[in-house]
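Reviewer 2 asked us to include a model.

Predict the structure of this chain.
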Amino acid sequence: MSYTHTIGIMRRAMGFLVCSALLVGLVLLSMSASVGAQSSGSTLSLGIVMSSPIIGSLNYFSPSENYYVTSALYLPFATYNFPPLAPLTPVLAAGWSHNSNYTGWVLNLRQGLKWDNGSPLNASDLYYTFYLDNYTNAISYSSVIHNIKILNSTAIEFNTSVSEPNAVYLWVEETNSYIFPYQVYRHLNLNTSLPGPNIDNFTNFVNIVADGPFVIYNYTQGENPIIFTANPYYYLGPPHLSQLVLHIYSSTSSYLSAYLAGQIDAYWAWGAYEVAAALIKNVPGHSFYNIVPGGEMIAIMNLNQYPYNTTQFREALAYATNVSEIDQKMMGPYASNFSVYYDNLIESLNQQIGLNSSQLPSYSYNLSMTAKLLESIGFKQGSSGSWLYPNGTPVSINIMTTQLGTGDVATATLLDSMWKSAGFQVNLQTVSNSAYYNYIFSKTGWQVAVGIGAPGYYPTGLGNLLGVFSLGEPYNVSLEAVNGVPNYNYTYVNQQLFVAQEYPIGSAQSNYYSRIAAMSIAETVPIIPLYAISNWQGLSNSFYWGDPSSYTGIFATQALVQPQLYWNALWIVQPISSISTSTVTSTTTSTSTITSSSTTTQTSIPTSPSTSTPPIITTTTTHTSSLLIAVVVIVVIIIIIAALIALRRR
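Predicted model (structure tokens):
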């Protein structure tokens, strides 16, 4: 064979390789075009704090589920919000409707939704999610739900045996309404006593199917950081970044150090302004924002113990508490916006239930009123100014606190000083978070607890009153009047709140009974509200995070997740240099709900939820990224074989 002939063969082989490579490029290009535009290639780095980097489960129904990650992977039907946004905002929802007596409901999904593997997200997923929420009794009215069924590819319906005017709101608030893939969860045994993967022990670590803006396909326990990739099928379009890196830190100090060193692009703090601002307000190249209310700092009094079971004593402590001073010292320039009234509501939530805050007792700092009230129930003031019980022994108050957010201990220290100045002996003790909550949910072992109120803060007036005062301890006590002064009455308060729930949230009737409950709480002082806390964010100026004026991106007043982990914040964030007019367009969806009437047929309530497989729309479970890799591998193998054959023909 001549040298020239050999060169010719090699050129033909190389030509074949080049053509094949071009063919591969065209195949991949066409496939990538089918899944939408690709992201810019930038990376966002965030951090969370966990005692251990080992995540127990990514199955939302598992007791060991990790909410940080699952809430990033999955989108809800709707989110609930603080004012000024409406209580509910559709996310995957197109809307919902009910019949005239609120016993028949239809839930509608948006058209054209997809999971990250390209398969349709449809009524099958919505059906099975709602079915599982009902089966696990995660919904407060689960016992009256029946006749759940699929109507079409985007809608399901269900009935209740009694009127449930707030059915959708309660479902969203109580379960967060995350929609899960039927193609994954259908394989689980619902009976947790059965062997194999069941609703409790399924980890969801392999072949993960999700719909968040950034997704993971597999998770190995202990991996840190966790690398998320952009979801090309996100319901608003592909995110602007290609990758999310989520670092897990074992302490807030290591989390803060990473932020200050520029290793992560955002820092989230929860609590008082002065403490959060001291940590992250003046970081070069970053901005500091107040995002959304996050609860309230309160002094809870043990209503099961004397003298805290007496209204006059609780009022005396309220008058001995300079709430304005505490608010100013802890919330700084935000103090006037974060006042909490004695009905346990902030101004916007009082407005929501139609209550003028000026109607509520304020218990403004007044030591003369403290003395008058204590003397009215037999207490005496010694020559040194110290207060004595009727039997002559000194009044000693034990304050317990914990470091749940930023500011708990600092606030308790201020209260300790004020009450000592008022003539009380005070002992302040800081305990662990778990010990703190174990104490306040028991009847004994504590007197006053200062901290962020359990169980958090709800974004509606009625929801917040229910969330706090329909709990068991520490409020589950109905006390007798003392010297004719009404006392806190758990039974009465809950009766009013129960009736308020019988009407749609925000209706005139619901607001009326909510106001009655609120006034009763304020007049009997079961707690001393100190100030509302907030979610604070330190954010890198290298990125665009959304628009505060229109509450988009990280500035949405949603109440489901940390602002930095909010789906539409992760979707909208992008390098500041890449901002265009189209980027900053508001992405807020309509918050109006569909309230058309429909006729539904009542059926008997089954004794237990059926575990039979519902009529489901078939979907594929292959991830696009996996398919791309498979195609590349196969084509490359073909090219190599073809090239070898061409070279052998000489």
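The chain has 18 helices and 20 strands. Residues 1-41, 581-622, 624-632 have pLDDT under 50 and may be disordered. We have added this to the supplementary material.
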